[in-house]
Amino acid sequence: MNERQERFCFEYAASLNATTAAIEAGYSEASAYSQGHDLLKKPEIQAKVAQYLDERRLQQARQFTLANDQAISALLEIISNPRAAAQARVSAAVAILDRGGHSVINKSLIKAEVNVNELSHEQRAARLAYLLELARSRRIASDTPGDAGPD
């Protein structure tokens, strides 16, 4: 594979447009359409494009994981900040539950036996952990397997 073909593979993986990739790789605009079409028929080109696409997917997955971790950390900071508004802490907890695939806690199912304003930070954290576990267990109990169809 020559340098121009290698560049075509890289550009095609970025744009998914053979004509644009051919032009970016240095082929003339007049022949870019046919060059791109012909290049994509070659097995070595297809393999290299697949490699670049796999690398891009992996990079995007890493970036998403990092962004997700940062978002969770920010939400946890809000939840644990005793000076944050109660609504902000609740919204952050709901966002974490939502990201984890858990349903939001139904307030009518929880019997408030204590005033949360009278709890220490550690007691609030323990209560939140308990409620999260309660919501998770109810979600698991309510999950039913999908219709698998006939055997």
UniProtKB/TrEMBL annotation:
Pfam family of the protein (one): Terminase_2
Domain of life: Bacteria
InterPro entries on file: Terminase_Gp1_N_sf (IPR038713), Terminase_ssu (IPR005335)
Biological process annotations from GO: chromosome organization
Protein name: Terminase small subunit
Organism: Acidithiobacillus thiooxidans ATCC 19377
